[in-house]
């Protein structure tokens, strides 16, 4: 598939076939995502491939608990909002596999110099326009395009 076709075909897929994705395909998606550009080649990502349905269900339950705590004070008239948020935060549990991308904070040599200015890491990161988050964005986009190129549907979730 040409890159243009992969970009045009990429869509947020939230309903999945109950068919296992071969591990070699998952590993290839991760390999390709790891080739993404990152600030100073820091590669601030770690990948976790999850195929265990029980674990995916437990992860969804944990997200539901967190949402319930966060949204617990909403009025009963907001139940539709709660239901929608619960679905869109946990539909991943129906996927045959999930690739979680974890991010580490980027610290540059200039951090040591700029700290003398009294700025903390978050202020420095804002000053630099969040290069670690930009790097992860490029990585996840590459991961999504790799999935499309290999004939799979995927969706980017955050949180």
Description:
The chain is mainly alpha-helical. A two-stranded antiparallel ribbon has the order 1-2. It is globular. It starts with a helix and ends in a 10-residue tail after the last helix. It contains seven helices and two strands.
| Separate helix tally | 7
Largest sheet: 2 strands, antiparallel
The chain-level structural class is mainly alpha
Shape: globular
Average predicted local confidence, pLDDT: 90
Strand content: 5-15%
Radius of gyration: 19 Å
Q: Return residue spans where pLDDT drops below 50 for at least 5 consecutive residues.
A: none
Tally of extended strands?
A: 2
Termini separation: 31 Å
Strand order of the largest sheet: 1-2
Q: State the assembly state of the protein chains.
A: single chain
- Helical content, roughly? 40-55%
User: What is the chain-wise order of helices and strands?
Assistant: HHEHHEHHH
Q: Can you give me a brief rundown of this structure?
A:
The chain has 159 residues and is mainly alpha-helical. The protein is 52% helix and 8% strand. Strands 1-2 form a two-stranded antiparallel sheet.
Main attributes of the structure:
159 residues; mainly alpha; two-stranded antiparallel ribbon
Structural topology:
Elements lengths: L2 H7 L13 H11 L11 E6 L2 H19 L7 H12 L7 E6 L5 H7 L5 H7 L3 H19 L10
Antiparallel strand pairs: 1-2
Helix pairs in contact: 1-7, 2-7, 3-4
